[in-house]
Every structure is written in C-alpha cells, then in structure tokens.
Write a structure and sequence with these properties.
InterPro entries: Amidohydrolase, Bact_exopeptidase_dim_dom, Peptidase_M20, Peptidase_M20_dimer. Mn(2+) binds at residues 98, 100, 133, 159, 360. The protein is α/β, with parallel strands linked by helices and 391 residues long. Helices cover 34% and strands 26% of the residues. The chain has ten helices and 16 strands. The chain has helices at 4-20, 30-41, 100-117, 137-143, 146-149, 203-220, 259-279, 299-313, 331-335, 371-385, and strands at residues 45-50, 54-61, 67-73, 122-129, 155-162, 169-170, 174-177, 180-188, 192-193, 228-237, 243-244, 247-256, 283-292, 295-297, 318-319, 340-348. Helix 3 crosses helix 10, helix 6 runs antiparallel to helix 7 and helix 8 (299-313) packs across helix 10 (371-385).
C-alpha cells in the first residue's frame, strides 16, 4: 500500500457509509451487500448466508493447509442517534453506537492489505458476523457449519475501546470479557388491601428479601479471588397505591469469567429464590438463560496477538496483562470451539477528547484515526501466523 493517505480516506469513506445504514440483529441487507462487493472487488471469494446474514471471505495463497480466522461484527443498536456529523444514521431509532461500522471497515482494510501487500502460505478467513449485540450471531454461524466449512485453526477478534488512548493496544490471557446470563424471578403471593396486609401474602416484602439475599452469593459463596456480579435491574408489580400486589417480577443479569462460577451463581440463586418464597408460603418461578459465554483468551494465541501488536503499535504501547471487563462479547462462543484471542484497540481517552464517549451512547462515534492501525494489526497477525517456510 504505497499511499497510506489514500488508503485511510478509502477506509474512512467505507466506515461513514456503513454508519449511515445501520442494521440490527439478523436483519442485515445493505451491510453484507457492501462487504461482499468490496471483498469481491479485491479478488477474494465470498460465501454468504452463514448464520442467516453472516458471510465469510476466503483468501488463499501458496499451498499450505494452515489457516486463520479474523472476525468483525456488523450489527448496530436500537438507539436514536443524537450526533451532528454529516454521516449520521439514515434509519431513525438505529445507530452504530458500538463501533461495529469501524470493525467492519477495519477488517475490509486488513483484507485489502493481505491481498495486495503480504506474501504468505495458507488461508485467511474473514468472518463478518451479524447479531453480536443480542449474543446470537456467533452461535448461529457455528450452527451453520462455520468451522466445518471453513476449517480455521485459530481465530482473532478486536473491539475499539473508549478510555484507552489512540495508539494503545490491550489484551490478556484468560477471561477478558464476562459471561452474561439473564434471569426472571416471578413471585406469586396474595393481593390484598394496603391497610390489611395480614389478609394477603405480600410479594413486595418477599421480593425485597430476595434482592438483598442474592447479594450474599458473591460476598459469601464465590471465591474472593474470582469475579462475579449479580444485578437486579427491573421490578414489576400488579399493585397500585393502595393495593398490595399479588405478583412481582424481578429481572436482571449476572456476569462472570469462569464457567464454574457461572454455574454456582445459577444454583445458589435458584435455591435462595425458591426457599424464601416457600418460607412465606408464596409460589416462585425462576428462569435463568445463558446469553453470552465468557470470552476466554487462549495463552498461545494471545502471545501471537501481542507479538503482532508489538510490531504495529510498538511494545511500549502494548499492554499484555490488561484488566478484564465485565461487559460481554459473543466472540466467546468462537473461542469455545477454536483457540484464539480477543483484543482491545484504543478509541480515545479523556485527554484527547476524540473517541472518548462511551460505547452505547447516543452520540458515540468510532474514531477513524484507528482504522489503519487496526487493519495493519490484523494483516500483520495473519501474515505472521502463515509465514512461508514455517510450521
């Protein structure tokens, strides 16, 4: 790539177009059309309809059977954009508030670099995934035979991260992002007049006791050296000002990095909810669903990612032992099947202002200054892993 300025302008134009046409969940049409068009123009073979609206680009050089997967998420969020730049969302109530437009443009840039500038021996699979935000896209692609049809030996993904300065890179071995499990607790008591509580079975009091007791799980059941979060985030009743309700519903989620902790949270929550309801002679329905697996980096592949990052970012700008985050990423589902690593690329911090608004903010915008760096990282990583005359 002789003219980096022109390359950056091209990636920026791609990203800005994608920002104007946000699409959510599996309802992706314009985005995969655009990605497929760009990949095919590069001479990269494209396979579509994987995991409903996902696609994979295949670039093979040489004769080796070695392979690597690079992944970008394509979906947006159901958020009304409040930005004022000239490439705002054209779809009211939807916007790229997490930077997936930038991730897609970055991986397209990596594909172009690998096609034009790198000589390697093996196959690169460019995985463009739908529905990361609801945690179903990776599983859908896996169920659709992603790893059987495209037998990648390792896989890597990246996310822009506000709060980390531009030019900085971070990752770690082991859990880097948490699981997300959702729960619903339905308490069925007996409604009564607010002035005659002894005539009923007050589910509000029961709910309060449950909410408080759930917080003892992390403090008294989870090993203090491990991490976990239980958050009750919603409470709904059928009561009114002078009516003690008959029904209360509590909703929320839990986070952890370790599958054993994940199982412990569910077990203890179920026991606590059922026991407290039984103590008050109320009925309990406990629903617990697994939305996101924890994203757990493999040690060897994390080391490969750090080596490539040292080359692109400079070792002084690479943090190989960053603190993990409790937010969730469905890339974890890929890492349960194939070894790999997930990394963070700085999107900007408070000092420079640009790119600092948090993810999922209605005015958030991906920082175009990191497009080339991200593309170079992926290209460097893939070429190193598929280096000629190496095993």
């Amino acid at each position: 790539m002789s003219d980096l300025t022109a390359f950056h302008q091209e990636l920026t134009a791609w990203r800005h177009y994608l920002h104007t046409v946000p699409e959510t969940e599996f309802d992706l049409v314009k985005t995969p059309d655009f990605v497929a068009e760009k990949l095919q123009a590069m001479g990269i073979t494209v396979y579509r309809g994987i995991g409903k609206t996902g696609l994979v680009g295949v670039l093979k050089k040489g004769t080796s059977d070695r392979s690597i997967g690079l992944r970008a998420d394509m979906d947006a969020l159901d958020i009304l954009e409040t930005s004022t730049h000239d490439y705002v969302s054209k779809t009211k109530g939807k916007m790229h508030a997490c930077g997936h437009d930038g991730h897609t443009a970055t991986l397209l840039g990596a594909a172009q670099l690998l096609q034009e500038n790198y000589d390697f021996d093996g196959t690169v699979y460019f995985v463009f995934q739908p529905d990361e935000e609801h945690g179903q896209g990776a599983r859908a692609m896996i169920a659709d035979g992603l790893f059987e049809r495209f037998p990648m030996q390792e896989i890597y993904g990246a996310h822009n991260m506000p709060g980390i300065p531009v030019g900085k890179f971070a990752t770690c071995v082991g859990g880097i992002m948490g699981s997300e499990d959702n729960f619903i607790i339905r308490i069925r008591g007996k409604g009564t007049h607010a002035a005659r509580p002894h005539m009923g079975k007050d589910p509000m009091v029961i709910a309060a006791e449950i909410i408080t007791s759930l917080q003892t799980i992390v403090s008294r059941n989870v090993d203090p050296s491990l991490s976990a979060v239980i958050s009750c985030t919603e409470i709904h009743t059928d009561g009114v000002r002078n009516v003690i309700p008959a029904n209360v519903e509590i909703r929320g989620d839990t986070r952890s990095y370790d599958p054993e902790v994940q199982a412990l949270l569910e077990k203890r929550m179920r026991i606590i909810c059922n026991s407290i309801c039984a103590m008050h002679e109320a009925e309990c329905e406990f629903i617990y669903t697994h939305e996101y697996s924890p994203t757990v980096n493999h040690a060897r592949e994390t080391a490969y990612a750090v080596e490539a990052a040292n080359q692109v970012f400079g070792s002084e700008n690479v943090d190989p032992n960053t603190l993990p985050m409790m937010t969730s990423e469905d890339f974890g589902a890929f890492l349960e099947k194939v070894p790999g690593a997930f990394v963070f690329i700085g999107n900007g911090c408070e000092k420079d202002g640009k790119g600092y608004l948090p993810l999922h903010n209605s005015s958030y915008d991906f920082n175009d200054d990191i497009l080339i760096t991200g593309a170079k990282f992926f290209a460097e990583l893939a070429s190193r892993r598929l280096l000629k005359n190496s095993q």
